[in-house]
Every structure is written in C-alpha cells, then in structure tokens.
Amino acid sequence: MNRDDTIERIREALGKRLLDFERKTSSRIFLEVAPDTVPDVSRLMFEEIEARLQTASGVDTRDAIEILYHWALDRLDCVVTVRTRLDRHNPEIESITPVCVAAEWVEREMWELLGIRFRNHPDLRHLLLDDDWPAGKFPLRRDYEEG
Amino acid sequence: MAKRTIIPIGPYHALQEEPEFFKLHVEGETVVHLDIELGYNHRGIEKLSESKDFEETIFLVERICGICSTSHPLACVQAIEDAGEVDVPERALFIRSVVAELERIHSHLLWLGLAGHFLGFNTIWMWSWRFREDVLNVLEVITGNRNHYGMMKPGGVRHDILVEDVPTILKLLDGLKGPVEMFRAAVMEDPLLQARTLGVGVLTREQAISYGALGPTARASGVDIDVRRDHPHAIYGQVDWNVITRESGDVFDKAVVRILEMFESIRIIEQCLEKLKTTIGPIDSNPKQIKPGEGVGHYEAPRGEVFHYIRSDGSNRPARHKVRAPSFMNVPTNRETVIGGTVADATIILAAVDPCYCCTERMAVALDCRSGERLWGADELVRLSTEKTKRLGKEIGWVGPELPFGQ
Amino acid sequence: MSFAIQALTRSLNVFHLAGSACNNCDIEILDALTPKYDIERFGMTLVGSIRHADLILLSGVFNKKAAERLKILYDQAPKPILVIAVGGCPATGIIFRGSYNCDAPPSDYLPIDAFVPGCPPKPEAIISGVIKVIGRLRSGEARPAYENLASGGHYR
Fold it and tell me: In angstroms, rounded to a whole number, what is the distance separating the alpha carbons of residues B305 and B354?
C-alpha cells in the first residue's frame, strides 16, 4: 500500500472516532482521538500498519495535558502523530505497553515528569528521577515549583 | 578481598562500589535477571530548553552526549525548521552531512575500541582510538573543535567548509580506508573474536521490532530501517550509499554493521565534497523568527534514530521540547539479550547496544539472585570477560599478538 | 617542600570521577592515556579505587543523585587529596545551571585545586593543568585546596 492509501486506511478504520485530521505536509500527519481510542489506534498502527513507535511526548498546555504518540511509517517516509487530550486535574489513560513494549519506558518517563497515570502499566515507577523525589511534584508541569 | 588491578580505562563513575546502572542477578554463572537503573545523568534538559531561545537550545542539546554531539543539534534544528517551515540552503545540507558522517566514523571507532577492551583485546582499543584522533583533527579543522562542533543552527550551518580544507579531509578519508579494512578483517575473520561474539547476546527480529530498537542494534537483527534512507532529509537521497543490515542479531553482527557503515560514511563524505564544488550559495537562510507550530526532527545518529519534537508559540523560545535519544529504545533490549547468558559475556552484550559511554563504563554489578550479595563489580566483570577470551584462545590454539597491559 | 607534598606529587595516582557528564571530557581524559598524549610519561597512573587516589579528576555537572555519591566518595578519599575540575560543568554547571535536577555544581561545595576550562578541554590542556598544579605545590606557591576547609574532613 502506498502512503496515500495507508493514510486512507487509517481514516477509515477510525471513522467517527477521528476527532481531527491535519495533513501538514505530504509526509506529516496529525490525528486527534479521545483517550479511550488510544489503545485501538496503537494496535492499528503497530500491528496492522506496522508502524514504529518513535516516542510519545506529553505536554502541559494549561487547558489540558496532551499526549502525542509519534509513529514512523519507515517504508513510506511518513510520520503520523496521534494526539489526545487528558483532564489536567486527573490525567489518566490506558497504557499501550501491552501492545508495544517500546512504550514501557516512554510511559514511565511521562508519568514521572508530568504525572500522567497509565492504567495497567506493568512497571510504573521512577526511571530518571530519584526514588525519593517528592510525590506529586512533576517537573514538566507548567505550575511546577522547586523546593 | 583480591588485590585491585589497575585498569587503564575510566571514567569511574560516581557509582563506585554502590548500585550500578545494570544489576545482574546471577545463579552460578548464568544471568537470570537484569535491573536497569538510570537517573545519574538526568539533567532536566527538556525543561531547561524552555528557558533558552532557539539558538541557545542547540548548544544545550549538543551537550546531551559528547559522542553524538552533532546528532542532537541536527535533529533539533530539523524540528525547529519543521515547526517554523524554514528553508535550508542546499550547500548547508551537504555541509551538515559531511560533519554528521565524520561523527559517525569517530563514534563507531570509539565503540570498536571499547568493545575490544571489554573482550580483552586492548590492541584494538589503542589502534581504533589512534585513528579516531585523525578524524577529530579533521573535525577541528572544519568546525573549530574536536567535539561539540557548534555547527548547526536553524536555517543552516555556522561555518562553511573552505576549499583549502577539502584536501585535508580527502587525505584523512583515504588514510582511513586501510585501517577500517584492517578492523573489518580483524573482526570478521579472526577465530577468537568470532568465538567470543558469534551467537552471543542474540536479539531476534521480532524482539527488535517490539522494543522499537534502532540503529545498528536493529539492523543487526534484520530490521531494515535507517532514517537517512526512509525519511530523506539533508542530501542522503542525492548520494549513492547502502544501508547495512545483518541477520543474526548477535554481538558479531552488531560489530559488523558498525564497521561496514564506516565504509559507507567515507563514500558519502567523498560524494558530498564533490557536490560542494558546484553547490555554491549561502549556508544559512537566517530565519528571524520561528512561527507558531509543531515540528518533528529525526536523524540517524550513530546509535540509531534521535528524535526531537518542538512546539513553537511564536516567541523565541520552545514552548515544549521533547528529546528522545536512540539508547532509550535500545537499552531495554538488554533484558532479552543478557538474561540466559553467562556473566563473562555480560559486559560485551551490554556494550553491543552502544549506550552512552558513561553508562557503559562502570556499568554493571552481578548479584547473587537469592541473597542479593554482591559478587562481581564492573572491573571484575571485564576481567571475567578477558579471562574467557584467554581460555578460548588456548582452546582453539589462537596465535595472535601479545595482549598489552598485563591482563 | 614538605614530605607530604613530595610524596603526594611524585607518581600521582589519578582517579577519574564523572557525574552526570556528557562524556566528552571523560573521553578527552582517556585520550590523555593513549600513545599520542601519554600521561604515563609524567608518572601518572589511573587507579581503580578512590582509596588509592592522590588526585581526583572531576567531570560532569553532578545532578542530585550523583552529588550525593560524590560527597560520600570525597569523604572516603585519603587526605590530603587534590581535585581538578575538568571542563566547564564542575566549575559552574554552564548551560545546565538552574535545572530542577541539578543543584550547585561541585565547585560550590568541594575544595578544588585547579579548573581546566573548555567544553571539552583538549587533552593537552588537561595534562597542562595537572602539571601546573604539581609545579605550584612543589615550589611552595600553593597548598592543596583541601587545607582551606574550615573543619577537617568534611565538605562545606
């Protein structure tokens, strides 16, 4: 399947669950879905489309906490970024580590730096910060204060 | 306690005699469990980046790693250029590739030296680092520094490659072909090196894909990915070169991929220098402002894909800067490759993924899996590896140069 | 020249200690061992334990986790001990200053005999720094910085 067909396939599979779609350039696509759809999208991307999870970035935008999952379609020179928005006061989402082991450390990092809780993650504990880092203090949050 | 041998290599990380990065739990000689503990290097770069402007952040990310010091800036400027829709002049793209490929050569030579040391072949270490010096000299001629080149900026590069410097670069490349061929023969044909690395630390293709493994670690397992070819940027689409892949995913194949890649890098640089003769023009498009937007920059660093994401809000600073180094995806694969192997092989298997150097040295300690008692520290694990080499050498009747440093 | 200084500065045992470093300085220090620069002709050897060290070569910015370790190791070092900060990081923290995971750089709490600036400093600069320290100690121009500590044996 070529690039355009593949992107069509993704749109079709998501149907109404696709909240937003932007084709920024021919090789850069941004999709938005609700948090509940993320495991299905991840399964679609990893298992069916055979995309590669490059990483996921969490962003505190003051209105919400966004997660952007970046999937590389290496054979098609294309990167598909899947965006989802979580409630800032209780950011929680299903882990995609059961779909793709590559997400394991990626989610641990987002948890400890942004406070996003990943349900059913096999090993959610500190990766980069000290084990006795004060609980509830997330350095990448906009309102993070030291001390 | 046994007398401490003086091992002529450092650094002795601030984890002396305490928990190391990799804790191997062993039963007899077999590794049954692996703990990986990071955190001694986390400097909060993503948050720091938000307080720097777009040009300053390039200097920041350059210092993430001293070996891949142009890879992070290259991915970072690409992310900024993607976000702000900034054009880059063609001459700058060729110059970027020359510096990047020179870095690949120096990084692989560095790794080769380390691998040699861990296996007990210190001659390989001394020779590969000696040739590495020549590469660093050329980088100093072109960029002004042996490391941390400060070449990349959003919109182009900071320095041009002067016509009078081209013969120096070509002379270096010519001078490298012989030694790299020597290393290729040493690794691929030497029976003792083969005995130590064939079938050792195998990462299967399925495992490599599911961990999202990158670079030589993935290519050695038959996963045919290389950002330079798959997502062509800079000029990789305009020069003739090959992606090197192997099948078995063992330490041997990981070494072979890196050595053969050096030949490809030499080819790429030679072609770029040829193209630079006729690609005249500016080396910088001098963007005054980065417009609001999001961008992704990814580049094939010596260790694999390095990934930067930048969100710009129209100010002169990143609103969000995400950095993902290739080792982040590669190091977890050690769970599959080290477990089930012997303690003597542990250091070379952990090193085969080519993690950041500081994470490699002083990296591992072996604990008894029942009592948790510390059995072997990093020095001793290297010694076990060296002893295995000597033992195997005797078994196969290996005739080779005397190992220096009295191992 | 006192016996202690004489003993200290002949045939230095060097301990290389890196904390949260980008490794560039570490590799330049290692380069000093390779035949091109060959630190061993000055009678210096790298040792594997801080308890045998005469000189600590410090590199890196030392984040919170690493700084704790550094203090423990410094206490274990036999006194007097010389400390040379290699690169910009242990001196000022350079571009990492202000990070949530990096408190003060080592120069704020450890007595340091010399700073070798650079990012990274070349192997020649590192060797030159060590030679200068030895020279000044031998001539009596300087005393080990360790002696400036207010109370013996503990960092500020």
Answer: 13
Q: What is the DSSP letter of A48?
A: I
Residue partners of A24: CB distance under 8 A and separation at least 6: A30
**C 74-113 residues with CB < 8 A to B:** 94-96, 98-102
Q: What is the pLDDT of residues B1-13, one digit of tens each?
A: 333 223 333 445 5
Q: Mutate which of A57, A141, A146 to disrupt the B interface (most B C-beta within 10 Å)?
A: A57
Burial B140-161 (b: 16+ CB within 10 A, else e): eebbebbbbbbbbbbbbbbebb
The pLDDT of residue B20: 53
Helix C123-139 to helix C24-31 angle (10° resolution) is: 70
CA atoms within a 13 Å half-sphere pointing along the CA-CB vector of B391: 8
Residue C91 near residue C105, CB atoms below 8 Å: yes
How many separate domains does chain C show? Answer: 1
Q: What is the CATH number of the domain that holds A35?
A: 3.30.460.80
Which residues on neighbouring strands pair with residue A86, listed in sequence order?
A: A65
Q: Which of C128, C133, C120, C124 is nearest to C88 (CA)?
A: C120
Q: Above 60 in pLDDT, residue A65?
A: yes
Measured between CA atoms, how close is B82 to chain A, in angstroms? 10
pLDDT, tens digit, 9 for 90 and up, residues C117-136 = 999 999 999 999 998 998 99
Per the CB < 8 A criterion, the answer to whether A100 and A46 are in contact is yes
**pLDDT for the residue A132:** 84
pTM of the entire structure? Answer: 0.91
Structural domains in chain B plus CATH codes:
22-41+329-395 (no CATH), 45-325 (1.10.645.10)
- How far apart, in Å, are the Cα atoms of B79 and each of B86, B310, B342? 10, 6, 42
